[in-house]
C-alpha cells in the first residue's frame, strides 16, 4: 500500500518499485540471451534512425540481409529494403602508407530490413503473461480522449508489434482483448503526448522514448488498479542505457494529464 505523500513523491515511490522489478528481470538467464541477440543489431546514427522512421515508421528491429541470415531468418521475397547510409574509407590515390590522413571517409547507400519483413527462426523473447479483460470500459474512455486530442485510432492485425504511434495516428493490434488494447493505447498515447513532433523523435534515443512511454502507461495502470502488466520485462530491454528516473517530471506530468481526463472523480490523494 502506498503511503500518503505528495503526488511527485508518490510517483518516485512507484518508479522505485518498478526499477527494482526491472533489475530482477535483468538478472535472469533468459534476459541475458535476449541481450546477446540484440547485440547482433547495429546501433544507428540519428540520421539513419530518421531515415528508417521516414521509410518504415513501424520498424522494431532492423538489420542487413546477411545479418538476418546469421540469426536464422530470411528476408521475404519481394520485400523492399530500407535505404540508409553506411560509412566507407577510401584510400587516397598514390598513397603507400597507412597514415589516417591518407584515407577519405565517404558514405554509400545500403539497405536494411525490419523484423516484420523476414521469416524463419524466432528471436528469443521474454515470456509474458496474458492480461485478463477486466477493464473493458477503459478503452472507450481512452478513445474519447484521443478524439479530443485529434488523434486517429485504427485497429489492424500487426506483425511483431502490438501498437505504433505515427504523430497524430495510433494503430493497435486488433487481435488483443479490450483491456490489452487499452494498455497498448496508453503506451502509444504517451508517445503522442511526449514525443509528438519529428524534432522530439529525432533528439531522443529509442531507449529514452520507450522508457518514458511505457513507464507513463504503467503509472496510470497502477493508479487505475489494472491487472499486472508486463512492463518490467519490456522496460528491462531499454533500461541498460537510460535511467527512467531521469525523465521523472515528464512521466509524472503526462500520467497526471491522462488520469485527469479519464478518471476525473478519483480522490485527490489517489491521483498522481
Task: Describe, in short, the structure shown.
The protein is an alpha+beta fold and 272 residues long.
In DSSP terms (H or I, runs of 4 or more residues), the helix count works out at: 10
Q: Calculate Rg over CA atoms.
A: 21 Å
What low-confidence regions span 5 or more consecutive residues with pLDDT below 50? 267-272
**Overall pLDDT:** 82
Strand order of the largest sheet: 1-4-3
What is the H-and-E element order? Answer: HHHEHEEEEHEEEHHHHH
Shape: globular
Range of helix content: 40-55%
First-last Cα distance: 15 Å
Task: Jot down its keywords.
272 residues, alpha+beta, disordered C terminus, 8 strands, 10 helices, globular, 3-stranded antiparallel beta sheet
In words, what does this structure look like?
The chain is built from ten helices and eight strands. The protein has 272 residues and is an alpha+beta fold. Strands 1-4-3 form a three-stranded antiparallel sheet. Strand 7 and strand 8 form a beta hairpin. Helix 6 (178-194) crosses helix 8 (206-223) and helix 8 (206-223) packs antiparallel against helix 9. The protein is globular and about 75 Å long.
What's the layout of helices and strands?
Layout: H1 7-26, H2 29-38, H3 46-55, E1 62-63, H4 65-70, E2 73-75, E3 82-91, E4 103-114, E5 118-120, H5 136-148, E6 152-156, E7 163-165, E8 169-173, H6 178-194, H7 198-203, H8 206-223, H9 231-238, H10 248-262
Parallel strand pairs: 6-8
Antiparallel strand pairs: 1-4, 2-5, 3-4, 7-8
Amino acid at each position: 500500500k502506498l503511503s500518503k505523500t505528495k503526488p511527485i513523491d508518490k510517483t518516485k515511490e512507484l518508479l522505485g518499485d518498478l526499477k527494482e522489478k526491472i533489475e530482477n528481470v535483468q538478472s535472469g538467464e533468459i534476459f541475458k540471451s535476449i541481450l546477446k541477440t540484440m547485440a547482433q543489431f547495429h546501433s544507428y546514427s540519428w540520421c539513419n534512425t530518421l531515415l528508417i522512421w521516414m521509410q518504415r515508421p513501424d520498424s522494431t528491429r532492423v538489420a542487413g540481409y546477411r545479418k538476418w541470415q546469421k540469426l536464422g531468418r530470411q528476408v521475404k521475397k519481394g520485400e523492399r529494403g530500407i535505404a540508409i547510409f553506411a560509412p566507407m574509407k577510401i584510400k587516397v590515390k598514390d598513397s603507400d602508407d597507412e597514415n589516417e590522413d591518407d584515407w577519405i571517409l565517404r558514405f554509400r547507400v545500403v539497405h536494411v530490413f525490419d523484423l516484420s519483413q523476414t521469416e524463419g527462426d524466432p528471436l528469443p523473447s521474454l515470456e509474458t503473461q496474458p492480461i485478463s479483460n477486466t477493464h473493458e470500459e477503459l478503452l472507450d474512455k481512452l478513445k474519447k480522449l484521443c478524439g479530443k486530442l485529434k488523434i486517429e485510432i485504427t485497429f489492424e492485425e500487426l506483425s511483431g508489434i502490438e501498437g505504433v504511434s505515427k504523430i497524430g495516428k495510433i494503430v493497435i493490434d486488433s487481435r488483443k482483448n479490450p483491456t490489452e488494447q487499452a494498455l497498448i493505447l496508453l503506451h502509444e498515447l504517451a508517445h503522442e503526448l511526449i514525443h509528438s513532433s519529428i524534432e522530439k523523435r529525432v533528439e531522443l534515443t529509442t531507449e529514452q522514448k520507450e522508457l518514458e512511454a511505457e513507464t507513463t502507461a504503467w503509472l496510470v495502470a497502477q493508479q487505475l488498479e489494472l491487472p499486472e502488466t508486463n512492463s518490467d520485462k519490456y522496460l528491462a530491454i531499454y533500461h541498460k542505457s537510460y535511467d527512467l528516473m531521469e525523465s521523472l517530471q515528464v512521466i509524472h506530468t503526462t500520467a497526471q494529464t491522462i488520469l485527469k481526463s479519464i478518471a476525473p472523480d478519483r480522490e485527490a490523494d489517489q491521483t498522481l
